[in-house]
Each structure stands twice: as structure tokens, then as C-alpha cells.
Design a protein that fits this description.
1% helix, six-stranded antiparallel sheet, five-stranded antiparallel sheet, Immunoglobulin-like, globular, 2 domains, mainly beta
């Protein structure tokens, strides 16, 4: 994203952005950058389709460089948006450095607070929905004490890699980096796939250096995101999606564009929405483990 000025205009429908239960629909979407001000802005047309008046509508643009946050806009807010009405909001990050991916966080209040996000990696490609609306912010999913998880076992089929691509010309030519995803197989007592929700934590170390330390929410909306559509331009470490063929959830971990081979050792923990916990320590290539039941409480 070194071009002096670029712009992306995408028309998004409620089915590709909002997901089930979301009360807003995004119409026109424009992502733009200017050279002089070094400002990156997201301009959105937001429509209230919830059937109820919304309060505290907020848009925040977050920019990432290789998975690390490098800039964040102030919230663009609309105090009230009546049912069926639309408004245009612009979230702008000033003095924004080079970035490789972005997240757009939209929140509002009707009967309760809601927040959802979508992510993108390139101004030439539309962003991918990260998850449907949630009652709590992603990454902050409280467990239900004493509940029984849908998943009787959780297995780790290993890491899944989406290869990067070469972009630019001449001296500006660079490799975007490979994006690694952790695969989780949630199964019931009969070995059938189930849509388990909860929180995943992954720590990856290359030698003595920690190269990733992430915490991701797995929500119902993620099971509607097709992993087969991941490409070098849409895959980012912030994406969580579902591989229907393998029956596994893919959780973004990191983008790797270092010269040395990726040979990290990883620790994984999963806390189900019902309060059950699974942990794996010091996993090495191919980072896979057979299915097992939760730890004793």
C-alpha cells in the first residue's frame, strides 16, 4: 500500500456484511488514502434495518502492519439512527503509516450493546466479514458457568497456510507474506462436527522470540464464512472462518514474511462458551494433535 493515492468503492449487501441478527446494513463503502495528509479514511453509508431505533452508532477504523496495530481512528458516531433511516459516517486515521490489513468495527445499542467487524488486506479487494453481531465485543466472550459444551472433543488438525504473493515493481517489489491459520475440529460424542463457540488463545515462539500472541472469539457467524474463498489478498491474521469440507474452524494467527523458515513452537488454549477448557503446549511442526475431551474442572 505504498501508492500515493488509492481508493476502493464497494457496494455491500446486508447478507455479506451484517450477518444474522445484525441491525444495520452497509450500502456504499469507500476506503481511501491521501499522500499529503497521510490520512486513511473509510466512508460508509449505514442503514438501520433492525426495526428499532438505534443509539450510539459508532465506526472505528483500525490499521495493522503484519498483524500489529499501527493506527486507529477516533470513533465516527451518530447519536441516534431511527428505524429505516440511513446516515453516512467517515472514520479517518491521521498520519497513518504503511499497513497490510485493516479492521472496521461497528457498534450500536438497541435492546442491548452490539459489536461486529470485517477485515480486509488490500484496497483492490472487498473486506471479509469477521463475524456476526455479538452481545459482547470479540475477544471478550464470557463463559456460562456449569454448562456442557456442544463439543465433546476438540482436535488440532494442524496449521493451514495461505501463500502470499509478490506485489509492486522493480525495487518496490515485495512479498506480502504467508498467513497461518490454526485449525480446530469440534466434534460431538459421535464424532460429528458441531458449531462450538468460545475463545481461542495462541502463543507462537520462534526460538526465544514471541512472534504471535493472539486471542480470538469463535462466534456463530464465523461458521457462515467460507474458508475456500481465502486468497493472498483476503487472508489476514484477523480472520476467523469455516472449512465446510473438513469441518474445521480456521483461526488467523500471524503473517510470516521473514527470510527464515517458519518453524515456530505454539501453545494453544480454547475456552468454550459453556466454560470447558482445552490446552496444548509446545506444539511443533506439523502442529497437530488428536481429538481429546476437556480438562477436569
Amino acid at each position: 500500500m505504498r501508492l500515493a493515492t488509492w481508493i476502493l468503492a464497494v457496494a455491500l449487501s446486508s447478507t455479506c456484511l451484517a450477518g444474522e441478527g445484525c441491525g444495520v446494513e452497509i450500502g456504499e463503502f469507500v476506503l481511501a488514502r491521501t499522500r499529503i495528509e497521510k490520512k486513511v479514511s473509510a466512508d460508509l453509508l449505514v442503514k438501520n434495518v433492525s426495526g428499532r431505533d438505534l443509539a450510539g452508532l459508532s465506526i472505528v477504523l483500525v490499521l495493522f502492519e503484519e498483524g500489529n496495530e499501527v493506527a486507529r481512528s477516533a470513533p465516527a458516531v451518530k447519536d441516534a439512527l431511527p428505524a429505516g433511516r440511513s446516515c453516512r459516517l467517515e472514520a479517518a486515521a491521521d498520519e497513518a503509516p504503511r499497513f497490510t490489513s485493516y479492521r472496521l468495527i461497528v457498534s450500536y445499542v438497541d435492546a442491548g450493546p452490539h459489536e461486529f467487524a470485517f477485515v480486509g488486506a488490500s484496497p483492490e479487494a472487498a473486506p471479509v466479514l469477521e463475524g456476526a453481531a455479538a452481545e459482547a465485543p470479540p475477544g471478550d466472550v464470557p463463559p456460562t458457568a456449569g454448562g456442557k459444551s456442544k463439543a465433546a472433543t476438540v482436535g488440532l488438525p494442524g496449521l493451514f497456510c495461505v501463500d502470499g504473493e509478490w506485489v509492486g515493481e522493480g525495487k518496490r517489489r515485495r512479498y506480502t507474506g504467508d498467513v497461518y491459520f490454526l485449525q480446530l475440529a469440534f466434534r460431538d460424542a459421535e464424532g460429528n462436527p458441531v458449531n462450538q463457540t468460545g475463545t481461542v488463545e495462541v502463543i507462537a515462539r520462534q526460538g526465544k522470540k514471541t512472534v504471535a500472541n493472539v486471542r480470538r472469539a469463535v462466534q456463530e457467524g464465523h461458521y457462515k464464512l467460507d474458508a475456500s474463498k481465502l486468497t493472498a489478498r483476503t487472508a489476514t491474521p484477523e480472520v476467523v472462518c469455516f472449512d465446510a469440507e473438513g469441518g474445521v474452524i480456521l483461526v488467523g494467527v500471524l503473517r510470516w514474511n521473514a527470510n527464515d523458515k517458519f518453524a515456530a513452537q505454539i501453545d494453544v488454549a480454547f475456552l468454550s462458551a459453556e466454560g470447558d477448557r482445552w490446552t496444548w503446549k509446545a506444539l511443533e511442526d506439523p502442529w497437530s494433535e488428536d481429538a481429546k475431551g476437556p480438562e477436569a474442572r
